[in-house]
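Data card: per-record layout.
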Amino acid sequence: MADAPIPSPIPVPPTGENADYNPEGALGGMFAPAYIKGFAPSEQAVAAWTAKNRPISYSDVDALRMPHEWREPQQMTGYGDVYGSGRIPNNLYYGHDQGQVDPLALISLSQGGPYDKDARRNSIAARLADNQAKEQAYNARPPKNWWEV
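The structure for this 149-residue chain is written out next.
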């Protein structure tokens, strides 16, 4: 008898209040299935729905920021005033130093739905290449005289 294999447990159908559990979710999967802690089919269904309908995370939103457009470092306005404020640079960026968050990424994170990370990465690569080309063109021009700055 010791050589006989141990039979695998047969899944027991849910009974009681979980008997009519729908792992697909409401409206054909448009909404997440109900989460019942400790009920394995529920936990698995919610994990599968989340993997399918929420393709982006908080770290992805932060990593997919669009870099700022490159600007010349010497852009200034005004000539100062009697109070000694000096010239005011107008090449400043407002907001986060790493760039702008994609609104579509925020929508996908908060409401679910598809999000094309590769398209966003391609647009970021295009912006970086454009910034590099602008900076090289700026550095390749002949220097201005000090009174023309």
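Known properties of this structure: The longest strand covers residues 76-77. The chain has a mean pLDDT of 79.

See the next section for split statistics.
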